[in-house]
Amino acid sequence: MQAAKSEARPDMRALDATLAFVAGTADAFAWHAGLLSRWIIEAGLPQTKIGLGRDLHRLALWTEQLLQRSRELGVDINERSLRRGAAARAAAERLRSAAAAGTNVALHRALEGSLQDTVERAASQPAVLDEPTRELFAAMSASLHRAPLHRVDAEEPGLWPLREGVPAEAASLGELAGVTPGRSARLFRGTEPAQPFEPATDARASAIAFLHHNLTELELPTMESCCRLLLECDMLPWAFAADMARQCWDEARHAQAFMQRLQQLGGEVGCHAHTHQLWEMTADLPPAVRLAVHQRIGEWVGVDGALWNAERFRRLGDEATADALDFIARDEITHVAFGNRWIRWLHPSDAEVEAVAAEALKRRRAFGKPVDGPAVFPFNRWACERAGFTADEVQALEREALARGSRFERFEP
Predict the structure, then answer these.
(1) Which of 98-112, 116-130, 223-237 has the lowest mean pLDDT?
(2) DSSP characters for 183-252?
(3) Can you tell me the distance from the alpha carbon of 88 to that of 68, in angstroms, rounded to the nearest whole number?
(4) What angle do CA 7, 13, 17 make, to 5 degrees?
(5) What letter would DSSP give residue 293?
(6) Number of other CB atoms surrounding residue 101 within 10 Å
(7) Would you call 80 helix, strand, or coil by DSSP?
């Protein structure tokens, strides 16, 4: 018995060491995901936001995989402590040292070096005792070698913590009071009061106006809003952060598609003015109402709009724009489902959800934002059901669509 007990101790020490390493890496990755979220908000160039959006999703996914691996090994990591542990503080300290150079390039190198060192150190461990964990880190290392982090353009102004003037503590990463999303003065013409989108009579001009409006008023601002939710709602499970990071990645791909199509048609970013209305609209709202304003209602209007505009552009002979909207509509349905899922996590009863939705509708109306589509928008029951609305909510949406004169055309998936 004594011999057996002695032989078991090294295994337990190895297990404890693995669990500590997995937990510390998840803490560091979560902090790095927060850092990318902050940079996405502050970056002024669309291509920077888009590139960092892809990287954010990757880090959030890795964090989720580490949490799952820890559960498989028998330990639930306290997800509310992520971004606050020793590993996060060490990552922040590395960034603090890099900030002394005063450049975004130094910050980027510090971030990339921190991630690469972490995954390579883990991947180099012997695989005898815990090959699944080693293989997980090996896959992360291969991903970083195959697709390095998006490099921040030298034109960008100083990002956090440079923007603050002095290196900041790890805990201040999510302090966004007074922060306004970045917009490059070279690319963006300026801000003006928001106007409803009106299609032009000329097909090409209509497409350019539509693409620019969606890029600057919807896709990029929604990325920023998702990042703010990820940073400020750290009381929620990491699965929420992963959902917001996934949506940010989706919106980044949409923004990329709109930018490419805009350029193909002879337009350019900045050919129309922009606003910060989406950011301002939810600045002082609790999480559930923010989710209702953006995901449950805003994204839902986007679903109907994408489906309808796909048909409109197809009838105008613009198959490229229509094809992009077909895919975008399916992503938006998922985003509505994210909103419905987490609103109900925060407020389980139907009465509470109704109250949250009513407050969100009031806020959107106050900012002149649509709370439903035009009468020409069809009612898409299949999309409602996939977006996480209850049967009663689907019936209510159908009644509202009928009341405003929807033609109830069907666009089947």
Answers:
(1) 116-130
(2) --TTT---B---------SSHHHHHHHHHHHHIIIIIHHHHHHHHHHHHH-TTS-HHHHHHHHHHHHHHH
(3) 19
(4) 155
(5) I
(6) 13
(7) helix
| Residue whose C-alpha is closest to residue 40's, from 29, 32, 48 | 48
Q: How far is CA 65 from the centre of its chain?
A: 18
Beta bridge partners of 274: 191
Determine the Cα angle at 56 with ends 52 and 60, to 5°: 175
Contact indicator for 306, 322 with CB cutoff of 8 Å = no
Q: Do 258 and 207 form a contact (C-beta atoms < 8 A)?
A: no
The span from the CA of 52 to the CA of 37, in Å, is 8
CA nearest neighbour of 53 among 193, 142, 176, 150:
150
> Residue 102's closest CA among 167, 182, 55, 56?
167
Residue 125 reports pLDDT greater than 80: no
CB 159 within 8 A of CB 151: no
**Token code pair at residue 193:** 């009061």
Say how many CA atoms lie within 13 Å of 121 toward its Cβ: 11
pLDDT digits (tens, 9 = 90+) for 223-270: 999 999 999 998 899 999 999 999 999 999 999 999 999 999 998 887
Residue bearing tokens 């975008």: 328
Q: How far apart are CA 95 and CA 114, in angstroms?
A: 9
Is the overall model pTM greater than 0.85, yes or no? yes
* DSSP character string of 296-316: IIIHHHHHHHHHHHHHHHHHT
Average pLDDT of the residues of the chain: 84
Q: Report the SS3 class of residue 274.
A: strand
Task: Give the number of other Cβ atoms within 10 Å of residue 317's Cβ.
Answer: 8
- Residue 221 pLDDT exceeds 60: yes
Which of 160, 208, 211 lies closest to 181 in space, CA to CA?
160
- Count other Cβ atoms within 10 Å, centred on residue 351: 8
First to last CA, the chain: 64
